Amino acid sequence: MDKPTHLIEFETMLLGRHLNLHNPRPRRDEYQLDRSAYTLLSRISMGGPMSIGELSDAFGLNVSTLHRQTSAMLNSGLVERIPDPDGGMARKFAITAEGDRRLEAERSYNVRALGSVMADWAPEDVEAFAGWLKRFNTDIERLAGRPWPRPGNSGTAEANDSE
């Protein structure tokens, strides 16, 4: 029997729709992070300061797109540009205390919202679902050659494979 990947395609399309709705919830305040800032801040928070080139490699996005996104984050005080801590020529983006505060507030809100969606799920079902999502994401990352750092590891492909 062929794998029913069409079922996964349909469900991920719906998941994307649910996650990408412009107003799935009322705006809490003007400080709510947009999706690109949330993702970029998460990556910088997990991996440490990154140059525009490193961000481009990590996300597979062109530099001009990242310049727009990082400029908006700079103007909002979420990141700052610092000299490369390793002595390289390129300046790097580091998360500020304000960026860290807002990232954690956004993450806490998202975790609470997921808790509402999964209120009737058994803890082992939530854990199993998280495991399947991790497997799905790490397989995508492996195929793309762009591993994403995760809590408890360095973000390398080897570290992701060892879990």
Automatic annotation (TrEMBL):
Q: Polar residues compositional bias: what residue ranges?
A: 153-163
Stretches the record annotates as Disordered = 143-163
Domain of life (superkingdom): Bacteria
Query: SUPFAM superfamilies, alphabetically?
Result: Winged helix' DNA-binding domain
- Which PROSITE patterns does the UniProt entry name for this protein? HTH_MARR_2
Residue ranges of every copy of the HTH marR-type domain listed in the record: 1-138
What protein am I looking at?
Winged helix-turn-helix transcriptional regulator
